[in-house]
Olfactory receptor (Rattus norvegicus), 312 residues
Amino acid sequence: MIVKNITTMSGFLFMRFSDNHELQILEALLFLVTYLLGSAGNFIIITITTLDPQLQSPMYYFLKHLSILDLSSLSVTVPLYIDNSLVGSGYISYGQCMLQIFFFTGFAWGEVAILTVMSYDRYVAVCLPLHYEVIMCPRKCRWAVTAVWLSSGIPGTLYVATIFSIKFCRAKIIHQFFCDVPQLLKLSCSNDHLVVMGVADFLSTMAFACFIGIIISYVHIFSTVLRMPSAESRSKVFSTCLPHLFVVSLFLSTGSFAYLNPTSDSPTALEFLFSVFYAVIPPTLNPLIYSLRNETIKSVVRKLLFSMKFAG
């Protein structure tokens, strides 16, 4: 009777990953700390790249929009899960679920697109420095960012439009910390999910093309850097690029695994771990990767903290 009620209800239930209340609280606290760290890091980057005159080059302009996407992506999924873990019933309405899918997939695609643009910007800066100001002029940068934001509406629209055709034949229990497409497909009837899988295949192909573009950009960058006589310059570029490549690879590989194998019977714990890798880790680590190795950003943050301390 309970299963029947869950099957016929309009919304969905998030399945708790532990019935132990203490573990639920611990899990919620870990997500809360991660969310606060990620939000603070992205908010600081957005603020200083907007206000500080030193950080008005194309690189920091793109970085600001990456941080906006990261902050938005975290805010779409993590706070609701924290609330459900601490005090919520775990219920999410159908409309809320569709909104979460629309915004999460949109922000995720936007992140892939802006990372591709950023890798091209670094390629021009390192390999074509004499032409940098012409190629990466303010007008072209604005067009690139506009294209990123406009294209971010496509994945969400495609997914939501195709999910409307799905009939749910199983208990509407989502074994995930947010309303994700692969989990909904596990609840669908026999062949209802094929259209959604077509969307996933198309978007995965586009994401893979972006990843190839990023790889090609960094191959050119590394080949140029290796010819530099200064060991310090080589170390500076490698220390920034390699962590960036690691996070991008982690984000795309785990996301592709989940979205291209949505109906697989992989263990719930593994699916949960993968979802953390593509939904939580990259938006949290990006501010660290782009700030800890950047002397200009660190000096601006120190100046900001010093001025706040002096004002206090």
Q: What stands out?
A: The beta strands are 12-14, 91-92, 173-174. Confidence is low (pLDDT under 50) at residues 1-5.
